[in-house]
Design goal:
The chain is 47% helix and 16% strand. It is of the alpha/beta class. Strands 1, 2, 3, 4, 5, 6, 7, 8, 9 and 10 form a ten-stranded mixed β-sheet that branches. β6 (134-142) and β7 form a beta hairpin.
C-alpha cells in the first residue's frame, strides 16, 4: 500500500529563546482530580526552571478547573495554557509539542504520574547514546484509586537500544505515553501526531519514530499509566471505532515501514487486533452488551480472517463466552443472524 500522508509540521524553536533540557507538557481535559498527583510527581524530581519547562495544556475542560490546580500547586513554577475551544486529544498533543522549547519533550497525561528517577535515568540515556530519537521505560498500570494493577512486559532485562524495536512496535503498541520521551528535533523532522488517528495516534507516532531512529529502553518501572473502569463500555468500544481506528493506523504505517518487512508486519498487526477485538467482544457478551460485541466482531473481521484468527475465535467462544454465558451467546447469535 502506498499513500501520501501530510503530518502536522512542527517548527523549530527560535534561536532567541532559552532552551532547557526538558519540556514536560501535560495535556489535560476534565481530569483536575488527578492533576495534583501528576504535578506533584513531576515537581518532586524537577530540576531548576532553566533546566525544565513544565506546562499544563488544557483542552477547554468543562467539568473542572485545572488552572486552579496549577495556581495552587505550581506556585509560578508551572505555566498554564487553555485551548480556545476543544480540539481533541491528538491535536492537543500537537499543541503541547508546538509550545515546548526543551530539547527533550515528555507528554504526560494529566491523570498519569512518574516515579522518582524518571527524568535522571532517561536523560542519561540521551547523554550516553546521542543517536537515539526516543527513550522509554517499563511502566505500571494503576486504577482510579492509585492501586497497582499490573506491570508492562519486560522488553529487555538491561538498559540500552532495542535492536528489534520496530518489529515489535509495528505489531502491537507496547508503549503507553507517560513512559516515553522524545527529542524535539525528531518531531521537527517527522512531524506531529496524525489528527485522523483519534484513538491510535500515539501508536502510529511510536512506529514512525522507530522507523527513523534508534530507541532506548530502561527496564525500571518509572511511570504509571492510569486505566479507568469505564473503558470497556466506552462509546468507542460499543461502536467498534477503536478497532477501526487501529486498523487505519496499520494502513498509515504500512506506507512507510521498510518494504522488505512491511507486508509481514501489517499482517501480524491486523491479526493481533482482530484477536484483541474478539476478546473484547467476549467481555461485552458477558455483560449482555450485544450491540457492542457485534461491533467488535464486525471490525475484527475487517482486520483479518486468517486461519489463525478464525481458530482463535472458535477457542474464545468455546472456552470463554460459551462456558460463562450461554444465554448471552445465544442472544448474540440471534442478533448476528437477524440484524
Amino acid at each position: 500500500m502506498s499513500e501520501y500522508l501530510e503530518y502536522p509540521s512542527i517548527s523549530p524553536v527560535s534561536r532567541e529563546i532559552h532552551r532547557p533540557k526538558w519540556s514536560v507538557m501535560i495535556p489535560a481535559y476534565n481530569c483536575a482530580k488527578y492533576l495534583e498527583r501528576t504535578l506533584k510527581s513531576v515537581l518532586e524530581q524537577a530540576p531548576a526552571p532553566e533546566l525544565m519547562q513544565i506546562e499544563v495544556v488544557d483542552d477547554c475542560s468543562t467539568n473542572d478547573d485545572p488552572e486552579a490546580v496549577v495556581r495552587k500547586l505550581g506556585q509560578g513554577r508551572v505555566s498554564f495554557y487553555r485551548q480556545p475551544h476543544n480540539v481533541g486529544a491528538i491535536r492537543n498533543f500537537n499543541t503541547c509539542i508546538e509550545r515546548s522549547v526543551g530539547q527533550i519533550v515528555h507528554i504526560l497525561h494529566g491523570d498519569d504520574t512518574v516515579l522518582p528517577g524518571f527524568y535522571n535515568r532517561l536523560e542519561a540515556a540521551f547523554d550516553q547514546e546521542p543517536t537515539i530519537g526516543a527513550a522509554f521505560c517499563r511502566y505500571i498500570f494503576i486504577n482510579e484509586e492509585d492501586n497497582q494493577i499490573k506491570l508492562s512486559a519486560v522488553e529487555s532485562s538491561t538498559s540500552g537500544i532495542l535492536t528489534d524495536f520496530l518489529q515489535r512496535v509495528a505489531v502491537v503498541c507496547i508503549i503507553q505515553t507517560p513512559s516515553i520521551v522524545v527529542r524535539r528535533s525528531v518531531y521537527e523532522k517527522i512531524g506531529g501526531f496524525y489528527p485522523e488517528l483519534f484513538h491510535a495516534g500515539d501508536w502510529e507516532m511510536w512506529k514512525r519514530i522507530a522507523t527513523h531512529y534508534p530507541v532506548w529502553y530502561d527496564p525500571q518501572p518509572l511511570a504509571c499509566y492510569r486505566t479507568h473502569s469505564s473503558s470497556h463500555s466506552s462509546s468507542l468500544v460499543r461502536s467498534g471505532a477503536n478497532i477501526a481506528n487501529l486498523r487505519r493506523a496499520i494502513e498509515v504505517s504500512q506506507s512507510y515501514l521498510p518494504k522488505p518487512i512491511a507486508s509481514e508486519l501489517t499482517i501480524r498487526a491486523r491479526e493481533f487486533y482482530a484477536l484483541s477485538a474478539f476478546e473484547t467482544a467476549c467481555w461485552q457478551l458477558i455483560k449482555f452488551d450485544i450491540r457492542g460485541a457485534f461491533a467488535q466482531v464486525r471490525e475484527a473481521l475487517k482486520c483479518s480472517y486468517s486461519f489463525r484468527v478464525m481458530r482463535q475465535i472458535t477457542r474464545l467462544v468455546l472456552r470463554g463466552v460459551a462456558r460463562r454465558s450461554w444465554k448471552g451467546l445465544s442472544k448474540a447469535l440471534y442478533f448476528f443472524n437477524y440484524s
